[in-house]
Amino acid sequence: MAHDKEREKLMVHLLLNHVFACSERTALMSTVPSSYWQRTAPALALASHLPSAVDVAVIGGGLLGTATCYWLARAGVRVALLEREGLASGASGRNGGFVRIGSAGSYLEAKERLGAETARQVMTLTTENRTLLRQVLPEEAIACAYREPGSLRLALSEEQAVRFRREIAELQADGYDALWLDRAQTQELIQTPLGEEIVGARFRPAQGLVHSALLVQGLAQAATRYGASLCQAEVLQVTSEKEELYVQTTQGSLHAHQVVMAVNAWTGQLIPEMAPFLVPVLEQMLAYAPLPPLFTAGVGVDAVDGEYLQQTLDGSLLVGGCGILAPDEGVGVWEPRPLAVVQGALEQIVPRLFPALTPQLRVAARWAGLMGCVSDAHPIVDVAPGLPGVFFVGGFSGHGMPFGLRLGQLLAESATSGVLAAELWPFRLDRPSLLPWPRS
Ligand SMILES: Cc1cc2nc3c(=O)[nH]c(=O)nc-3n(C[C@H](O)[C@H](O)[C@H](O)COP(=O)(O)OP(=O)(O)OC[C@H]3O[C@@H](n4cnc5c(N)ncnc54)[C@H](O)[C@@H]3O)c2cc1C
């Protein structure tokens, strides 16, 4: 038996080497593999029948759609959520599980990209989101391994260290918690010897980690307790007629006073005007089989181009990033299939940063997901062009988890009042930093 297992391992190893050598940039798998999160979260069944009319139809069963649906149902609004595949089948069930306050990238970059005021508004909104997580998860008994151990960003050179220290000074000056840890202090937070390159880390306390699929399922379950309908249906089109909205789906059509579209990477399929601005971009991860407890905080690093790892409560070590190695194959795709060149690079991250772990590493799962990316890496929330009554949200650019509950709450308020909430104005389409996605 053990011998067979060893043989099987060797065959898989040889096969992977062959795949990497022969077709470096081709898809690694012909089917779309599920993620660690999806494999460890029982799937919630969706109804196949649609109600004929609701107050609000929410399209998309990711974090944003389920959060919006939750707040609407909790406020007593008649709401149906329409999801094409399954809850958390998109990016929300395929991500790194980091719930990090602020914008995508560093605080300094965000200030440059979006302006100081917008960067601060994002800090405020994502902090409010953390407060909501702390309230809603116990209130609704949502068990999704949410915790706030803080986040480390490892510096691999003196140049990176200088950049992090500047960012820390900026964060502190604006009233946010962040501190520099030298190599010895960083080592105290990681229970395996650091690789030689690591000179220290930026630490931000009270940043969250979560089991993203369980969060989505939990919010959806809570929404059904408040009376929401959760339906499996692909939305084909939304049309407006005499101030009413008709949602055409593969399961028939639905009449709604307001619609919230939360399909992120797929936004351009339902709102063609958005296709030049919001593009699907492939992001990939792998999971190593459980190891003893080594990492409590989430860990980020610029080893290739913004990699990240978290150890889950069952000891699995999840690693993501390296997408820059397949810039052409990863942009504008609709199916989240892992690519060999990126998976090969991901396998080098942990051995490079923590060489002592190398003999224990066994890849247990590989997967990919689609991010909805925009030029300024800042989410869009607005009324859909030409479709009054349809609010849409997307373009998180790989950083949507810290927005979910609060943006969902504001979208629910907007759909109830029919007017985009003032707190959502920093995310509108007409901001100067939003440009068509650069095509190479
Ligand atoms: C590999 C990876 C790692 C990431 N890591 C992190 C991280 O650690 N932290 C972080 O903050 N962010 C991360 N992100 C980004 C984060 O996952 C997203 O920003 C967030 O999940 C977006 O949620 P959403 O609900 O807007 O979209 P999604 O979760 O993508 O949901 C959209 C849903 O719409 C459905 N849909 C699409 N079209 C239709 C249709 N026509 N009809 C009906 N349903 C439809 C899809 O099936 C899907 O379920 C990562 C993303 C990826 C891919």
Biggest β-sheet strands, sense, barrel: 8 strands, mixed
Q: What is the end-to-end distance? A: 52 Å
Amount of helix: 25-40%
Global outline? globular
> Compute the gyration radius: what is it?
22 Å
- Ligand set: flavin-adenine dinucleotide
Number of helices: 11
Class by helix and strand content?
A: alpha/beta
How many DSSP-defined strands?
18
Account of the 3D structure:
It is a single chain. The chain has 440 residues and is α/β, with parallel strands linked by helices. The chain folds into 2 domains: 2-94 and 213-277 and 379-427, FAD/NAD(P)-binding domain (3-Layer(bba) Sandwich), CATH 3.50.50.60; 98-211 and 279-373, D-Amino Acid Oxidase, Chain A, domain 2. It has 11 helices and 18 strands. It has helices at 2-22, 36-39, 63-74, 107-114, 116-139, 158-173, 183-188, 212-225, 267-270, 340-353, 404-417; strands at 53-59, 79-83, 98-99, 151-155, 179-182, 200-204, 208-209, 229-232, 235-241, 244-249, 252-261, 279-288, 298-301, 307-311, 317-320, 363-373, 380-383, 390-394. Strands 1, 2, 8, 9, 10, 11, 17 and 18 form an 8-stranded mixed beta sheet that branches. The chain has an 8-stranded mixed beta sheet with strand order 5-6-4-13-14-15-12-16, with helices on both faces. A hairpin with a 2-residue loop joins strand 9 and strand 10 (244-249). Helix 5 (116-139) packs across helix 11. The structure holds flavin-adenine dinucleotide. Flavin-adenine dinucleotide (FAD) binds next to helix 3, strand 2, strand 12 and strand 16.
